[in-house]
Amino acid sequence: MNTPLVSLQNVGKNYQQVAALKSVSMNLNQGEVLGLFGHNGAGKTTMMKLILGVISPSSGSVEVMGMAPDSKEAWHSRAKIGYLPENVSFYEQLTGLEVLTYFAKLKGYNKKTAIALLEQVGISHAMKRQVKTYSKGMRQRLGLAQAFIGEPKLLLLDEPTVGLDPIATSDFYSTVDQLKTNGSSVILCSHVLPGVEQHIDRAMILSSGKVLAAGTLSELRQHADLPVRIKPKGLNGAVSSDPKLKQFLTGKLDSQTLFVPEQDKLATLKQLLSYDAMNDVHVEPANLEQLYQHYLTKEVTTLEGDKS
Ligand SMILES: Nc1ncnc2c1ncn2[C@@H]1O[C@H](COP(=O)(O)OP(=O)(O)OP(=O)(O)O)[C@@H](O)[C@H]1O
């Protein structure tokens, strides 16, 4: 069996009185993309810092490329890791090219690499300008270029799409897909859920330092047992008079959307197809936002139940 690139076993992290992570376990394999989600203060950045080795666990163990990342031996493997911190900031007086060349040289690369990356993230036109003149999105693009130096084996990206316009966001995800194809592993944290799900292999939802859910989206869907939304077109009210179909309507007068349990999906589609008038149908499984809401709400309900 392949050894995972990153492995956390029952990891806890306390900052004085704050328990930022509580018994978190996870493995990340080569070429895998993990989405890390959770509200403010859930422990996402703490997990990234533990993987980087800039802080040490209070309990449990962290291994990255077979070593404890906070150990002396792990120093040389840091060149194989790319990190985009949340709220990235740079030396304001330097130009974009100077900043990136500096970071490239720290990792053993040269100015040519820096120029190519500035082109890749779409700010080569501004590379000779001081960073203090950059817009928020341009700074974020520079941060991404810095994280991409040397096609890292492992990329840790904290809120990578903050400040990016739609085109830059889509370019960013294309780069992630490309890096994954080339064998890099990626952990990305984001509060912006739409658009992420096509690019991740697995998701982990953290809340108050605990893992609420982890797995592929299909595993999370199965476990959450959320209904599939089926939206038929052209039936003009036939659904509400069909006994097999009307049970899946929410009761809202104007809605023709059916909320169907996964196990009834095929039978419902077959029933819908028996109507010649149906001219289109949309089938939407629960998306990442709905899954996220589901797991967080479930936790709140459990906690409230525990109190009573
Ligand atoms: N250096 C520190 N000293 C004390 N407490 C800290 C420190 N760093 C983080 N914390 C606390 O640990 C908890 C987890 O913080 P963390 O930054 O990991 O959350 P996060 O999920 O990244 O949040 P956000 O989405 O807001 O960035 C929070 O309660 C935070 O206040």
Automatic annotation (TrEMBL):
<dbReference type="InterPro" id="IPR027417">
    <property type="entry name" value="P-loop_NTPase"/>
</dbReference>
<dbReference type="InterPro" id="IPR003439">
    <property type="entry name" value="ABC_transporter-like_ATP-bd"/>
</dbReference>
<keyword id="KW-0547">Nucleotide-binding</keyword>
<dbReference type="GO" id="GO:0005524">
    <property type="term" value="F:ATP binding"/>
</dbReference>
<feature type="domain" description="ABC transporter">
    <location>
        <begin position="6"/>
        <end position="233"/>
    </location>
</feature>
<dbReference type="InterPro" id="IPR017871">
    <property type="entry name" value="ABC_transporter-like_CS"/>
</dbReference>
<dbReference type="Pfam" id="PF00005">
    <property type="entry name" value="ABC_tran"/>
</dbReference>
<keyword id="KW-0813">Transport</keyword>
<protein>
    <submittedName>
        <fullName>ABC transporter ATP-binding protein</fullName>
    </submittedName>
</protein>
<dbReference type="InterPro" id="IPR051782">
    <property type="entry name" value="ABC_Transporter_VariousFunc"/>
</dbReference>
<keyword id="KW-0067">ATP-binding</keyword>
<dbReference type="InterPro" id="IPR003593">
    <property type="entry name" value="AAA+_ATPase"/>
</dbReference>
